[in-house]
Amino acid sequence: MNPLALVGRSALAACETVGHLALFALDAVLRGLRGPWYPRQIFRQMVEIGYFSLPVVGLTAIFTGMVLALQSYTGFSRFEAQNAIPTIVVLSMTRELGPVLAGLMVAGRVGAAMAAELGTMRVTEQIDALTTLATDPMRYLVFPRLLAAVLMLPLLVLVADVIGVLGGFLVSTLKLGFGPIEYINRTIDHLESEDVASGLVKAAVFGFIVALMGCYQGYHSRGGAQGVGAATTLAVVSASILILTADYMLTEIFFSR
Predict the structure, then answer these.
(1) The predicted structure's pLDDT at residue 170
(2) How far apart are CA 57 and CA 160, in angstroms?
(3) What is the pLDDT at residue 257?
(4) Is the distance from CB of 69 to CB of 173 less than 8 angstroms?
(5) How far is residue 31's CA from residue 171's CA, in Å, rounded to a whole number?
(6) What confidence score (pLDDT) does residue 224 get?
(7) Among 137, 163, 185, 216, which residue's Cβ finds the most Cβ atoms within 10 Å?
């Protein structure tokens, strides 16, 4: 097989997939904004994405903050720079680790669930039944998930930031010898609104990516139970890769100056 032909086919297939995904997202957003809206569906998705994701996001954040404080102390103690630990913890959590880890956790929990639910509805012809009953699946199934994810991910990240900083505070004060007031003052002094805002913008983008990939893979799944399983796996993997890619691009936009 000609390797150049293989590369060309792969590139064309990738472009085709990106085009289908972009048209799917645009179609879902435009149809959803035109209405009719389904408040009960939107609220149900907000609870599912936000409230039920709190435990896994909170546990991830607190242990991340604790490990970050320990690792920073190990490295900075060689240079007598332990006082920078509060700054490192709060900036790392708000700018980077909070949004990314929350996005990845939600992708694993919610993205997979969306793909499995919509995939099951597709292979059992429930989506076709909605169309027959004059209910637009894009408005009823896809748009509420997109909207709920965009709204709830920033709230989850805000909670993750607080819990992550709390984890660093606990380790620093109980194990590393920091005074509580000193640690809090250093955290507040070096935290700016731009740091929190950039993390929340990232979170909204990551939420859209998670919901989009879960809905897209589930909506287009084929082949019975095996197809639903493949769609679930693709939803999590593709969302995780896109989150990391978008994270770099957004970081470049916010902090490259």
Answers:
(1) 92
(2) 6
(3) 61
(4) no
(5) 49
(6) 78
(7) 216
Q: Token pair for residue 206? A: 């990551």
pLDDT < 50 stretches in the chain? none
For the chain, state the CA radius of gyration.
21
User: Can you give the residue ranges of every domain in the chain?
Assistant: 39-251
- Please give the torsion angle defined by the CA atoms of residues 4, 6, 12 and 15, in that order, rounded to the nearest 10 degrees: -100
Find out whether 27 and 130 touch, Cβ atoms under 8 Å: no
> What is the C-alpha to C-alpha distance for residues 28 and 212, in angstroms, rounded to an integer?
9
Residue closest to 124 by CA, chosen among 5, 23, 218: 218
Neighbours of 185 (CB within 10 A): 12
**Alpha carbons 161 and 135: distance in angstroms, whole number:** 40
Sequence-distant (≥ 6) Cβ neighbours of residue 119 within 8 angstroms: 217, 218, 219, 221, 227, 228, 231, 232
**Contact (Cβ atoms closer than 8 angstroms) between residue 233 and residue 108:** no
pLDDT tens sequence across 79-88: 777 778 888 8
Q: How many CB atoms lie within 10 A of CB 193?
A: 7
The reported pLDDT for the residue numbered 133 is: 84
Q: Cβ neighbours of residue 112 under 8 Å, at least 6 residues apart?
A: 214, 232, 235, 236
Task: Return the pLDDT at 132.
Answer: 85
Q: Please give the model's pTM, rounded to 2 decimal places.
A: 0.91
Question: Which tens digit of pLDDT belongs to each residue from 216-237?
Answer: 998 888 877 788 888 899 999 9
pLDDT at 136: 85
The single-letter DSSP state of residue 52 is: G
Nearest Cα to 221, choosing from 144, 88, 139, 115?
115
* In the block, residue with structure tokens 């242990």: 63
Instruction: At 12, list the tokens.
Output: 């064309």
